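Hello forum,

I keep getting stuck at the same step: I have a sequence, I want structure tokens, and every attempt I make locally crashes halfway through. Rather than fight my setup again tonight, could one of you with a working pipeline run this one for me? It's a single chain of 413 residues.
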Amino acid sequence: MIGSKIRALRVRQALTQEQLAFPRYSRSYVSQVEHGTMHPSDEAIRHFAARLGVTPADLTQSADDDERRLRHLQRRAKQRREASDWVEWQHCLRDALHLARAMGHAEQESWCLAEWAEGWWERRQPLRAITAYHQAVEALGPSGPSPAMLWLRIAEISLSMGQPERASSAYLHVGGAGVRPEMLWRRDIGQAWALMLLGYRARAQQLFHSVARTASEQGYAVWASHAITGQALGLLISPGDGLTRVRQADQLMQRAEGLASVPACRIGAALIRLAAGDAGGLVDLTEARRSVQAEGNLVAFARGARLEMFALLALDRVESARGLGREVLAHLRHRDGPVLCAWVREPLAVAGAWDGRPDAAIQEALAECAGVYRAVNLGPDAHRTADMRRVLRDGGAPALRQWVERTPVAAWG
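Reply #2:
Ran it on my machine without issues. Output:
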């Protein structure tokens, strides 16, 4: 029992028998201990434990005792995370991770590291979360179980941080035998958003459409709804087909009892109310935007803020739109993602029409956004330009309509 533990830890740490024995014992002695033909003395156990970075008790405990203690620590750590008791959570998880490594149990070590990652993510420290998830993948090793869920979380956290390149790369690792369809749809929807941010709009729409079709055919209303909502929102407000798709997604979500909608669906439901002339939709849109901001989802946050700003402009609440734009840009300033900032600068530039600034300054801001879109293959886009102009021209504010009419189309993209 002790010998097998010693061997597992030695191999895991890439130590030779000579290195483990040095300087007090021989390679032959270590070999006999590992094969169970020699029981080590207390002094030898202390020596091996020190060389392996564990305690003597870790080597002498029985397997059953180890398993029971590990399970208890893992359950306790999860309970403490759910209760936001971060001090006790850390203590339990540290002990569990230490024990899993002493047991040479790669899967349980990976579980502990993934639990670390989720805790860091909930504490709004995404970089630490991603690091811990990568460590969890490494703990499984190339011959271990599939790390698909771990890669999925790496991708989702990266995407929420506004880092589509990292997210797209991580999504490529999600797959293989035994992966459930729900996980594959979750992967494809996330990958579609990453591709949308990177400028591959046609490929993104193909993924959204594929998930919507297959999930609908198999009776998974929630995933079909998520995919259709992704198609609907995309990068910009689309007053026609976009709202039709959002309504379709909302109907699917209503049939999925007991399941809360994702941020995109919450934003979509608010747009439906606004399209119907219900100003209460603006309150819903604000709540959805604040919710995803609290969750640390930068992509959904920037998208929701953009839509909220256009809604404020349509309701002739221009000062509120400007204030929101400045607030959101300040939040995004020190983060990666020029596309996210461009989403916000565009309606902010439009709101600037009421500032008394010359048209040239506003057109310069729009040209900056167009440059960002063009750099990632999002523009010039006649359909996008026409949609935006139509939304603003039909918004109901006379000054806004006049400004749209006198602003050259070239300034939009």
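The longest helix spans residues 63-82. If your local run keeps crashing, start a new thread with the error log.
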